[in-house]
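Incident review: delayed structure delivery

Summary: a single-chain prediction request sat in the queue longer than the usual turnaround. Root cause was a stuck worker, restarted by the on-call engineer. No data loss occurred. The affected request and its eventual output are reproduced below so the record is complete for anyone auditing the incident later.

Affected input:
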Amino acid sequence: MIRSTQETLYRLDNLNKEQERITYQMSTGKELQNGSDDANLYTREIYVDDKIRVYEGLQTQIEKTNAQNNVSDSTLSEIKDLLTYVKAEVIKALNDTTDADAKEVIAINLAGVKENLYDFSNEEVEGEYLYTGSNTQIQPFTKNDDGSITYNGDGFLRKVAVEEGSYRERGVTGFETFMYTSSSAPKNSPLEFDSNERIIDQDGYEWKMQAVTPVTSTGTLNFNENQALIDDNGEIWTLNTSIPQLENSTSGSSIPVSGSSDPYTVDLDLGTTTVASFSTAQLVKYDESGEATSDTLPIINGVDKAYQITTPDEYGIKFEAKGSTFDVMDKIINALNQVDSNGDAISADEAEESLREGLSEISEAFDAANAGHSQLGGRNRVFEISLDRVSTKLTQYNILSQEIGAADLSKVAVEAKALELTYTALYSTINKMNELSLVNFIR
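Output delivered after worker restart:
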């Protein structure tokens, strides 16, 4: 009797476990409640679920990138409209019927346009700047004390994952949108540039002007007529051979030199607090992290512009000198107000000539913004296609997950009915067993 009771309880426990399994499958629609129920099936579920998580992350990231790209697209449209307006206003100012008062009004309007351009250049979406390059946490453009605007970003684009192990470049940089190419040079060719221009190579690396180290701090420095000099403050000095003297175009300062031909000599014991030393200048290549490398190029005085280098004699080399759209705006506004970059008055003819140069340069700035807009459109299309592909794969993996892990509800229903009958039979047996007794047997 005791043995029969134990066997009955054992069978009842098995039926309860089966009831739990069937209830779980019917309520969740999943076949496996525990991974140990079917190790092979559980492994397949884990693999597919991992893929779903990966593609959900990719989808979220691409959707965010598309939102940022859409803002960039609309912003660049506004920027091009503003530059078109600037060109129209400069053309109006060059008309002989436009007097000085009207030009001052135009200058005020264009100063407002410059502020709008500055706001657009620092556009951000979800805490990320759009035009700063690889580091989207850095504000791309900042104002200096003199009102000029400096680009703080780099020439590299941030890369976003569009597939496992596959990345694509997002957006455009400030070099592509707010700077124009004033001059360019292929391998082993001269490139001329001014001190306010930025030098970029074919790979997006920036080359910055620096002093050749070590900088001589006492005695005299001999240099040739074609060599550009830089002082300890980072200011560039050029040689005026007619006097002769070194001149700083930024501050308007000058320092006499000795000699009437190469080599010239400057006395570094100047007795001045503004300049402590001089050195010849060079371009230094900076890497993606903003650190100076060992790659350098010597700088000499230019012919048409202030400085000149010779590009490396390597296949695929291309250097570009980039002028700033904001510098062009300053040039136009100053010309309309009939002053130079230092705020000193200039003649009407000089102002008109500067204004004509500004019109040409603002047209180049518009072309650069238009080209950047086109590049953005191509990159945006890549992410739109990627989003469609990722969404499709995510749908397929979700379907596969359901097919792999889903319980056969028809089978479960049959098993539930069979379990119900088994329960009924077992409880009937238990009831009969409970009726067994010696009294009932004697009866």
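Verification: The mean pLDDT is 83.
Action items: add queue-age alerting; document worker restart procedure.
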